[in-house]
## 1
Amino acid sequence: MKLSLVVLSLVSIGLSAPFAKGKRASCTSKTTRKSWHSLTREEKLSYIEAEKCLMSKPAKLGLTGARTLFDELQLFHVYQTPEIHGVGAFLPYHRFFVHAHEHLLKTECNYTGGQPYWNEALDAGNFSTSIVLDPETGFGGNGVAPSNCIQDGPFKDYVNAIGPGEAISDHCIDRIVNECMSVMGNSTFVNQCMQMQDYKTFWPCVEAAPHSAGHGGIGGQMMNVFSSPGDPLFYLHHAYLDKLWADWQSQNLSARLLDISGTNRAPFPPFSFPLPGNDPGNVTTLSHVLTVYGAVPNVTIADVMDIQGGTLCYEYV
Ligand SMILES: *[C@@H]1O[C@H](CO)[C@@H](O)[C@H](O)[C@H]1NC(C)=O
Ligand SMILES: *[C@@H]1O[C@H](CO)[C@@H](O)[C@H](O)[C@H]1NC(C)=O
Ligand SMILES: *[C@@H]1O[C@H](CO)[C@@H](O)[C@H](O)[C@H]1NC(C)=O
Ligand SMILES: *[C@@H]1O[C@H](CO)[C@@H](O)[C@H](O)[C@H]1NC(C)=O
Ligand SMILES: *[C@@H]1O[C@H](CO)[C@@H](O)[C@H](O)[C@H]1NC(C)=O
Ligand SMILES: *[C@@H]1O[C@H](CO)[C@@H](O)[C@H](O)[C@H]1NC(C)=O
Ligand SMILES: [Cu+2]
C-alpha cells in the first residue's frame, strides 16, 4: 500500500514537472486575450479588420467550396464535427481551433492583438442588447425574418460560401437571438461547472450549458453544429469557453494540466470515431491527435493542455 502510494506520487511528479516548469519556460512572450467588453474602440476595429482580411484572402488548400482562409477554417470544423463534439476532445479541439484562427489573423493579416473573447455571463438573458452586436464596433445585430440575415454591421454584406450544415452554398450570416437559450450562460450555470472536480464532469457541463447558451442564444448559423464558424462570433464564443477551461485548470494546475478523459466515440452519425490509429480506445487520452489539415502543424492533446506550455503561449485577462 505504502509502496504503491510512493510510486504513484513519483509518477505524478514526473509527469507534471515538464508541464508546470520546463515547458512553461519556453512560453516567454505571451499573447494577451482580452474580453470584448474591455477592448478600446481601436482594438475592436483592428480585430474586425483582421477578420475581414481572413474573409478576403484566397484559400490555399484546395478544399471543395472554400474560397477564403476563413472558409477553410470553417470547413475544418464541418469535416470533423462528429469527432469534436460530445467527446472528450471537445475542449482541446476547440482550444486548438481558436489558436489556429488567432495564428492566421497574425500571420496572414498582420493582426497584433490577441483573440478576444465574449464574456457571455455578462450578457446572458440579454444577448440582444450586448455590445458584441453593435453595428459599428461589433459584429452587427440580430437577423430579420424571413431570411434572418443580419441587417447591419461590418459583416452585413459578407457572403459565406460554406454551410448551412455540410452544404456548400452562398448565403448571408443569419441570426435568431433567443434569450431563453442565452440565459443558460449566466453565472449560476458557469459556477456549477467551475465546481466540478474532474475533467470527466467539467467538460460535459461546459458543453451542455455555457456552450449551448452561446450557440443557441445567437441562433442561425451559430446554432448549426457543423457550420457555426461561419459567424465570426463563433471565435469569441469559443475563446470564452476556452477561458472557462483555463480558469478551471488554474484552480489546481498540477492535476488539471494532465486531466483528460471523456467518451472517445462520436455520439451521432457517421459514428466513425475513433479514427484508425488515432487514440483508438474508448476514453480520450493525452496522445490524441488534433488537426487543422496543416494550416498549423498537428498537435496532440498533451500539447494543448497548458495555454502557456510552449505550443500555446497566451493568457486571459
Ligand atoms: C502585412 O505587412 C506586410 C509588411 O508590412 C505587408 O507587405 C503586407 O501587405 C501586410 N498584409 C496585409 C494583409 O495587410
Ligand atoms: C437588458 O439590457 C437593457 C439595456 O442594457 C436593459 O435596459 C434591460 O433591463 C436588460 N434586461 C434584462 C432582462 O436584464
Ligand atoms: C440564471 O438563470 C436561471 C434560469 O433562468 C435562474 O434560475 C438563475 O437565477 C439565473 N442566475 C442568475 C445569476 O441570474
Ligand atoms: C488537486 O488535485 C489532486 C488530484 O485530484 C488532489 O489530490 C488535490 O487535493 C487537489 N488540490 C487542491 C488544492 O484542490
Ligand atoms: C468501447 O465501446 C464500444 C461501444 O460502446 C463497446 O462495444 C466496447 O466494448 C468498448 N470497449 C471497451 C474496451 O470498453
Ligand atoms: C495530422 O493528423 C491527421 C488526423 O490524425 C492525419 O490524418 C494526418 O496524416 C496528420 N498529418 C501529419 C502531417 O501528420
Ligand atoms: Cu464546434
Note: Residues 31-316 form a domain with the di-copper center containing domain from catechol oxidase fold (CATH 1.10.1280.10).
## 2
Amino acid sequence: MDAQARIKQIQERQTPFYYYDMELLRRTLQQAGEAAGRYGYRIHYAVKANYDPRVVEAVREAGMGMDCVSGNEVRMAIESGFSAADVVFAGVGKSDREIEYSLQQGIFAFNCESLHELQVIHQIASRMGKKARVALRINPDVDPKTHRHISTGKADNKFGISYTEVDQAIATLSELSSLEIVGLHFHIGSQIRDLQVFEQLCTRVNTIKTWFAQQGVVLRHLNMGGGLGINYDDPQAELIPDFARYFEIFHQHLAVEEGQTVHFELGRSLVAQCGELITRVLYNKTTALGGKIVIVDTGMTDLIRPALYGAKHKIENLTSTEGSETYTIGGPVCESSDIFAREIELPVTSRGDLLTMRSAGAYGAAMASRYNMRDLPGAVYSDQL
Ligand SMILES: *Cc1c(COP(=O)(O)O)cnc(C)c1O
C-alpha cells in the first residue's frame, strides 16, 4: 500500500493508536535471527518491550525464545505456544508464587539477582521436589553510557549479584542442593549506541568466567542480555539495527569454550522501529511568551518515555506539508511532564491533522496506563488495513 492510501485508511480510525508495520517486524526478526545464527547464538525476546499478541506471534514464528521479567510474562509465553525450555526468567523481585509457577512449568533458567534469591529458590524447589536451573546474574560494573534510568550494570545499580559477592555465591551454591547452576547472565542497560561498550562487556565477562572455571564451576551457557540501541533521531535511515555488526563484536571478543552456548535477550532493537503512535491534533494555543503549543489526543499514558526518561521520538505531520513553524507538542494529561517534544520544526499544524511519533514499538504500548481514567491506546496492524 502506498503512503497516501495508508494515510487515508488511518484517517478513518479513532485515534490515538499504535500502528505496527508487520512486514518490517518480520524482516527485523529475520535479520537478527540470521546474524545470530551465523555464530550459533540464541535470541530470547525481552517481551517486556512489547507484549502485543501479534508481535509475540511473529517472534514465535521467527523461532526465538522468550526473556521474561514477571510470572505473568512466563505464563503468557507458555500460553502463546513457546516451549518452557525456551523461557528465561529475570528480575530482582521474583515472588514465591512466580517462582513456584515457573518451576512447575520447567523453564530453561532463572536469572538470579542476589544471594538471598538463590536461597529462596532453593527452598521452594526442594519443597516441591524439583531442581531449579539458575544462571547467576553478575553485575559486571560496565558503564553502558546511556540514560541513568536505563543503566543496569554499574556497581551501584540494584541489579545483579555484585562482583564482590561472587566468592560467597559459589560457597553458598554447594549447600543449595536443589539448584543447578547452568551459566552466567549479564545485562548492563538499554539503548546502547556505542558498540565499544559491548566490547568492554566481553572483556569483563572473559575475566569473570575464567574465575568461575578456576573455582570448578561448569558454565554451559553465557547470557549476554540485551541493550542494543536504535536510531530515534532518524529512524528512516536505520529501520533495522546493524545486527551483523553487533553479533560480530561478541564473536570477536567473547571467549567461548567448547560446548558453551551464548544467549542474548534483545527487546528494543527487535520491535522499536516497526511501531509508531498515531495521534490527532486537538488544539493550537500560544503561551504568554509567544511559544506555539500543539495539543494532541495522545498523552504520557500512551507513551511515557518522553516524560520518564526525557526520550525524544521523531514526530512527523502525516497530513500537512505546507510551511514551517516551531511547536511544543503536549498531551491532555494533567501533568506538566506530559510533553512529547519542545520547540520542534513541523509544517503548519492545525486541528484534525494526524501526527506520528516514530520508533514507538518498544516500551510504548507496554508501558501504557489508565491514569486520568484514559482509555488504553488501540493497535492497528499494517496487514489488517
Ligand atoms: C529489559 C531487559 C532486556 C532487554 O533490553 P533491551 O534494551 O530492550 O534490549 C534484556 N534482559 C533483561 C534482563 C532485561 O531486563
Note: The mean pLDDT is 95.
